[in-house]
Amino acid sequence: MTGETRKSEENSIFIGGKPFMNYVTGVIVQFGNGAKEVVVKARGKFISKCVDVAEVARRKFLTDQNVSVKEVKIGSEEFENKEGKLINVSILEVVLKKG
Amino acid sequence: MTGETRKSEENSIFIGGKPFMNYVTGVIVQFGNGAKEVVVKARGKFISKCVDVAEVARRKFLTDQNVSVKEVKIGSEEFENKEGKLINVSILEVVLKKG
After folding, report:
1. Does B86 touch chain A (CB under 8 A)?
2. Domains by residue range for chain B, with CATH
3. Would you say the C-alpha torsion A91, A42, B71, B42 has a positive or negative sign?
4. Quick one: closest CA in B to A91, which residue?
5. Nearest 5 degrees, angle CA B40-CA B74-CA A55?
6. Which chain B positions have a beta carbon within 8 Å of A73's beta carbon?
7. Are A69 and A50 in contact (CB under 8 A)?
8. Which of A74, A77, A91 is the best substitution to test chain B (most B C-beta atoms within 10 A)?
9. Confidence (pLDDT) at B47
10. Quick one: what percent of chain B has pLDDT higher than 70?
11. Of residues A87, A97, A86, A78, the one with CA closest to residue A38
């Protein structure tokens, strides 16, 4: 009964401002825990980092686990900024798949 | 006989450091010139901007032309930096399709 045990939605990693390798490690750990698919997601300026995380995890660290890019999706989301104004922000999702 | 008439490879737009709307306009012009597909590409830090360009062109300007995202591809390329060192850089391609 810990507060930390919420299951992350379909093994998702949300990319933000933490150090790059934190997210790469997150991907590796999720596959290590038996996930068949891991979704790496980002919004706005973190989208470039998101592609880097997916590529580095796949090409540098999971090379012996046959992980491939199953799908890449882009889209837009409405987002409320600090002034309470609704703005559009781009989103990107990379679905990594083992096997 | 001008030097400017080289045909851009499969109607591609390479995203770089120019103003955002230059690229959005580029996408609109290519569809206006009869292209069935336009590929919006970027490397590294310009990948976020690339998704924004594709989304804004499609959702704000080409709404009456039935343009959809046909495919999104990610990958890595070797890239020689200023010091002559080979580094990997992520790449992203968004294929926009009319009809």
Report:
1. no
2. 9-98 (3.30.110.20)
3. positive
4. B51
5. 145
6. 72
7. no
8. A74
9. 97
10. 90
11. A97
**Res B10: pLDDT:** 67
Report how far residue A55's alpha carbon sits from residue B74's, in angstroms, rounded to the nearest whole number: 8
When CB atoms are compared, the residue of B45, B55, B76 closest to A74 is B55
Q: What is the mean pLDDT of chain A?
A: 90
ipTM of predicted complex:
0.84
Contact criterion met (CB below 8 Å) for B79 and B43 = yes
Which residues in chain B have Cβ-Cβ distances shorter than 8 Å to A17?
none
Other CB atoms within 10 A of residue A30 CB: 21
Q: How confident is the model at residue A4 (pLDDT cuts 50, 70, 90)?
A: very low
- Interface contact B90-A48, CB threshold 8 A: yes
* Residues of chain B contacting A54 with CB distance shorter than 8 Å: 74
Query: Residue B79: pLDDT band by 50, 70, 90 thresholds?
Result: confident
